[in-house]
Design goal:
With 190 residues, the protein is α+β, with helices and mostly antiparallel strands. 44% of the residues lie in helices and 37% in strands. The chain has 4 helices and 8 strands, in the order H-E-E-E-E-E-H-E-H-E-E-H. Strands 5-4-3-2-1-8-6-7 form an 8-stranded mixed beta sheet. Helix 3 links the parallel strand 6 and strand 7. The radius of gyration is 22 Å and the shape is extended. The model has no long low-confidence stretch (mean pLDDT 81).
């Protein structure tokens, strides 16, 4: 009977400490103005949506209903998000990043120049990530269409992060935001 109690105690501790893996997939076709995003946690679907941009709004379409997302963030929320991003970025472990692209223009010469420029730009970014996370698996698959205008990009990434790290970063970000706000109020009084 004691082993059953230990099991109920050990399972939440294991879930809390060991990292969970997020599989994030993103697709965007700039010319056709369509895209998709999906996020899976341990092969369980969290978000799957198609996206379209209309003016300054992002329209997300799920199977159930249409949601129009209008993002407006104040200065305090941006400060909190910046602190949270800084805290979490130190704790995130990138397992793999795959970048896929199909780029093309009507002229073959310009298409090859554009595609190679994009490849070099992505490889520079991936090498910076590799210096930050040496164990990450980073891949680029770039295809060039020489006779038709295309600009399709896809990204698939697997990241690992523990719930403990997320909650710790969240609390630290709240404290830093409050401390920053108090410091700014003191500076305004002087």
């Amino acid at each position: 009977m004691e082993s059953l109690y230990l099991l109920f105690l050990a399972v939440p501790i294991i879930i809390f400490i060991f990292p969970f893996t997020l599989d994030i997939k993103f697709y965007a076709d700039v010319i056709k103005n369509r895209g998709a995003i999906s996020i899976y946690l341990w092969k369980i679907k969290i978000i799957v949506a198609k996206a379209k941009i209309k003016g300054n709004d992002i329209l997300l379409k799920t199977k159930r209903h249409n949601n129009e997302v209008d993002i407006e963030l104040g200065e305090e929320q941006l400060r909190f998000l910046n602190f949270f991003k800084n805290e979490v970025s130190n704790k995130v472990k990138i397992r793999e990043i795959n970048v896929y692209s199909i780029l093309g223009l009507d002229d073959p010469f310009k298409a090859s120049l554009f595609s190679s420029f994009f490849s070099n730009l992505v490889l520079v970014l991936l090498s910076k990530i590799k210096m930050w996370q040496p164990t990450a698996s980073l891949n680029l698959n770039n295809k060039t269409d020489f006779y038709e205008a295309h600009c399709a990009l896809a990204l698939r990434s697997k990241i690992a992060l523990s719930i403990f790290d997320v909650s710790y970063s969240f609390l630290i970000s709240i404290l830093r935001t409050k401390q920053d706000r108090i410091l700014q109020e003191k500076l305004k009084k002087q």
